[in-house]
Amino acid sequence: MTKDTLNQLSKDALEELGRTKGVELDKRFNKAKLVTAIAALFKKEEKAKEYHKDDANKDGVVDSEEAARAALVAAMDNGDI
Residue 26's closest CA among 15, 39, 42, 10? Predict the structure, then answer.
């Protein structure tokens, strides 16, 4: 999803989308920060899928979701988001 698409969603919809990816967003943040967080999640997930797509020993979907979730949590902990 692009940031433009995410910007069209409400804060409630962004929170629900985050939950589908296993991340709980705090709606007290402004919408721009929520969009940035979700966009980062999708970006990390895509990179992880590309990294694992040729790896026959790993389940790329599960690994990419875990990697994306970990990257988002780390970015939020560091104050990047």
Answer: 15
At residue 78, φ and ψ (nearest 5 deg) are -80, -10
Predicted structure pTM score: 0.60
Measured CA to CA in angstroms, residue 41 lies from 56, 57 at distances of 24, 24
Spell out the SS3 assignment of the chain. CCHHHHHCCCHHHHHHHHHHCCCCCCCCCCHHHHHHHHHHHHHHHHHHHHHHCCCCCCCHHHHHHHHHHHHHHHHHHCCCC
**1-37, pLDDT tens digit by residue?**
788 999 999 999 999 999 998 889 998 999 999 999 9
